[in-house]
Each structure stands twice: as C-alpha cells, then as structure tokens.
Amino acid sequence: MRLIATFFILIVVIATIINLPVIFQESNNPLAIGWGILRLFINQEDIVRLSGAPEKYIATNSGESVDIKLSRVLEKDGWQFKDRMGAGIFFTRGTETLFGHIRMLTSWFQVIEIKPNR
Q1: Does domain 2-116 have CATH number 3.30.420?
Q2: Tally: H helices and E strands in the chain
C-alpha cells in the first residue's frame, strides 16, 4: 500500500513539473486566478479585478461581451470606451488613454490586462 501511495505522489510531482509553464502562466501566481474564478462564482459577478499594477481582470465568457463588462467597471473611474481592435480595447478619459489586452484563459474565462498608453 505504501508503494502505491509513493508511486501516486511521484506521478503527481512529475506531472506538475512538466506542466509548470501552464500552471504559472499568469504572472507566476495561479492562486490569484483561482481566487478570481472563485469570486466570480460566489458573488455571481461577470468580472472581477485580480491585481493592481498592471491592472488585471478576469471575466466570464458568457452573456455580454467582455468590452461591455469592462466598460461598466472603468466608467466608475471616468473612463469611456473608445474602440476595440481584435484583442485590444481602448478607453479614454480626457487626454489619457488606457489600452487593454484581452486573451482567453479557458473556454469559460478571459483575462484582461490594462496598461496606460504612454
């Protein structure tokens, strides 16, 4: 029995080592992504903030498009939706511009990274 448990642990460790690039694809912190997904389901929200600088959000890939979901969040700070080109999304506030990059995390979730345009 002990041999089976040791073998199982060895397989899990090897699989984890092989898949490290996938597990740690989000800024070396998969826990933040997991926590964000959990908050999406517990709070029944469509989008939640993951981190501060650069700003990262995670959104569900159902219902409204991600640019509408993100627009509702950023409008609270005075940002207005300007344009979307492919995976890029632009917001303006006066003379300032924000650029967001949207990418699929899984078929259910999208990650949006927001950077000030300089």
Answers
A1: no
A2: 4, 6
